[in-house]
Write a structure and sequence with these properties.
Layout: H1 6-15, E1 21-27, E2 39-46, H2 49-62, E3 66-69, E4 75-77, E5 82-89, E6 94-97, E7 100-104, H3 109-118, H4 134-139, E8 143-144, E9 147-148, E10 153-159, E11 164-168, H5 180-186, E12 192-199, H6 205-222, E13 237-238, H7 244-249, E14 259-260, H8 262-268, E15 275-276, E16 279-281, E17 289-291, H9 297-315, E18 324-326
Parallel strand pairs: 2-5, 3-5, 4-18
Antiparallel strand pairs: 1-2, 6-7, 7-12, 8-9, 10-11, 10-12, 13-14, 15-16, 16-17
Helix pairs in contact: 1-2
The protein binds flavin-adenine dinucleotide (FAD).
Length: about 325
């Protein structure tokens, strides 16, 4: 009789975990906002923390390739899919206790923002409209309009592959769109976020509602809710790290908070409106790519590669993707 592969063994061991839903050959395009990507050999999800932790333990032990995803709003999955195990934690409870809020990692970030506003807790209004869940927002230190998830975090509970642990804000090592969780994953030792605790100063709910409403109107125009996209594709650049040629080209009014929008360089490199197959660069925003219908991950990679080449040749800058790749045989941020 044929010996079981690591993947088959992992699948068998995952199926034994109560409260974990396991499917085979799960199409990943269904789980990404871009609507791209082939199947995951094995897909497991659960809203139960202990089941998620046990699933991570078992896939780690199997030696099969694996990855954790959130709501798939920042992912590009290969057309061939992912020949391993994809896990998702769906625990989504949010608890408010005075000026402290605890949220499970699978809660929508918007649910946390809304809960804070309605409880009169100030600080996350600027993040209104950022898609995705709380865990992924911490992983990538998501933010917008002057607010970042790192601003109000006091504690994060996570699984390091051996034990469930807690860390304070300092231990999260937050930087611009980066955290210790992201760096660990890049080193192949992921820490999986389970829940987090936040502390807020008091604010005026009416004012916060108004601000959130205005931000949502602007964002809906930039990213219509049915747009198959991932927000900004490339990271903005720190002005002080730019090479001399690029620095000289950037007018001072473009620099905001020490950063230059990647869109500024892309625009000058003629990005707007470029097309590869079904993937396009928005005519309005040079750092927004979207699936206009029938796009493939190969089209996306070709177009992103073309944009990087143009910016490199014109400004001597290497743009870095903010979006994450799955199934391309590489670990990406
Ligand atoms: C229209 C649009 C607008 C956007 N605007 C913004 C913006 O203004 N600001 C901004 O910062 N981002 C923005 N984004 C990007 C995206 O919303 C964020 O990156 C978001 O945090 C991704 O959340 P997700 O749940 O979809 O994660 P996914 O895309 O599913 O995963 C992202 C990463 O998070 C990791 N991850 C997920 N869950 C966990 C966990 N529990 N523990 C550890 N790692 C985990 C995954 O491994 C993966 O590497 C935008 C995206 C879209 C589509």
């Amino acid at each position: 009789m044929r010996a079981m592969t690591g993947l088959e063994e992992a699948q068998r061991r995952l199926a034994e975990i109560p409260l974990l839903q396991v499917t085979l050959n799960e199409p990943l395009w269904k789980h990404t906002r871009f609507g791209l990507g082939g199947p995951a050999a094995v897909f497991g999800c659960t809203a139960d923390e202990a089941a998620f932790v046990e699933a991570v333990r078992r896939v780690r032990a199997s030696g099969a390739p694996w990855v954790v995803i959130g709501m798939g709003t920042n992912l590009i999955v290969a057309d061939e899919g992912f020949p391993g195990i994809v896990l998702r934690y769906d625990g989504a409870r949010i608890r408010i206790d005075g000026n402290r809020v605890t949220a499970e990692a699978g809660a929508a970030l918007q649910a946390l923002v809304d809960a804070a506003i309605e409880a009169g807790l100030q600080g996350y209004e600027g993040m209104t409209g950022i898609p995705g869940n709380v865990g992924a927002a911490i992983y990538g230190n998501a933010g917008a309009y002057g607010a970042s998830i790192s601003d109000r975090i006091v504690r994060v509970r996570y699984f390091d592959g051996a034990e469930v642990r807690e860390t304070d804000r300092e231990g999260c090592g937050f930087r611009y769109r980066e955290s210790e969780f992201k760096r660990r994953r890049l080193r192949g030792e992921p820490w999986l976020i389970l829940s987090a605790e936040f502390e807020f100063p008091a604010g005026n709910t009416e004012e916060m509602r108004r601000k959130a409403y205005d931000i949502r109107a602007v964002r809906n125009q930039k990213y219509p809710p049915d747009m198959k996209c991932a927000g900004s594709i490339f990271k903005n650049l720190l002005w002080e790290k730019l090479p001399g040629l690029a620095r000289a080209a950037v007018p001072p009014e473009v620099i905001k908070g020490g950063k230059v929008p990647a869109a500024w360089f892309l625009d000058r490199a003629g990005a707007k409106g470029l097309v590869r197959g079904g993937i396009r660069v928005s005519e309005e925003h040079a750092n927004t790519l979207y699936n206009a219908g029938g796009g493939t991950a190969a089209d996306f990679r070709a177009l992103a590669g073309e944009l990087k080449r143009r910016v490199r040749e014109r400004f001597g800058i290497e743009l870095e993707e903010e979006v994450q790749y799955i199934g391309f045989g590489e670990v990406s941020p």
